[in-house]
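Work Package 3 committed the consortium to producing structural models of liganded targets before the mid-term review. Because experimental data for this complex are still outstanding, the team generated a predictive model from sequence and the ligand definition alone, so that downstream docking and mutagenesis planning could proceed in parallel. The input record is reproduced below exactly as it was submitted to the modelling pipeline, together with the SMILES string for pyridoxal-5'-phosphate.
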Amino acid sequence: MKVKKKVPLIDQHDKNGFYGGKFGGNYVAETLKKPIEDLTKLFEKCRYEKSFIKQRDNLYKNYVGTPTRFIKLQNLTDHLGGAQIYAKMVSDANGGAHKIYNAITHAMLCKRANKKYLCTDTGAGYNGKMFSMVAKKFGLGLKVFMGTRDIKRQKPNCDAMRSNGAEIIPVDSGSKTLVDAVSECIRYWVANCDKTHMGIGSLVGPNVFVKICGWSTAQISRELKFQLNDEFGQIPKKLKLINCVGGGSSAYGFWSEFIDYEKSNVELIGVEAGGSAKSKLHAAPLSKNSKIGILHGAAAYCVQNSEGQIDETESCSSGLDYPSCSPIHCFLKDTKRARYTYATDEEAFNAYKLVTELEDISPSLEPAHAFAEVIKMAPKLNDDHVCIINSCGDSLKDKDIIKKHLGSYNR
Ligand SMILES: Cc1ncc(COP(=O)(O)O)c(C=O)c1O
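The resulting structure, written out as tokens with the ligand in place, is given here.
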């Protein structure tokens, strides 16, 4: 199993949609075969069309407000006393997170397919919020499937969805979180795919959804490449790109332009949700115990029990609280191009505290996991190492959780 050079990673699958011969694929109900085939044809046509790319780039620039900032975290660098630490402030994007890129592409595809309705899933609420923004902009109806546990813990994003006119469909089954929301959303699409376009909110699902999402978030690393050349006059020789991983859309977007570099030059580090140190439960299939299983139409590492059933997960961060991960990250793990680790809830809260005390930024609990890793790593490195964290979400949605755990919310 090998990562090819000069071929976008999203395209490195075989004719059945498998990466490395075993991750991904299209495990879908018979009734979805045709809609997925149609969507694949549409996407493969649009992604090379000049007018489609022009419309996308225009929206990224003028509606999302890209490029997002690339900033040095000097106080954190001085405090940790090792590597130089920077952040790519993807949370600057309109709506507050990277989920806007994928949502825009899906709204454009929905229009091209002459459909009037969108449906999607959400965990942290950012994907739902971004879909509600683009649905409003493009005049489309929207249903957002969301676990009832997440509806309670991510209220600010739910308020935003409702005020943009989206309907939130509460999902009360299973763990009442993202995994159940995605399942319900796919079930809804099976029955309504003639009028409704489905957008999955991460780099997961049947092959075409992985590709659409990766094609969209790749904008992040295109910008970063320019910004690195501006700041350093070249791509730094010892670069580490650190990103949290739930389904893996922000990490793919942050890394895609850098995959072809040698790992001794550009190291890719994914940080999953290790859950509470007091609990055995976690949401870290790439870095803790897991097996290959099939979830949401694709084969990937999944957190499973001894009978092979998808197991419960636990994380303070709704966006990372997912028992599986992208087939692309499974491929990057098995080829050793990326390294995966985890941070516990406690480490993420402590990282949030330290970063917000020292710097004028306020990352959500998802990127706080990535900050936790840099806090461990940076002091062991010298200052010719450049560590960049993708600060991919704004903390406002986590205000109540942070207040409860840390006693106050710094912003
Ligand atoms: C801010 C933020 N970061 C990260 C994630 C994790 O998703 P992904 O791994 O697809 O980027 C989410 C998911 O909701 C999120 O809202």
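Reviewers should note the following from the model. Residues 97, 123-124, 126-127, 202-203, 244-251, 319-320, 364, 366, 392-393 surround pyridoxal-5'-phosphate (CB under 6 Å). These observations will guide the Year 2 experiments.
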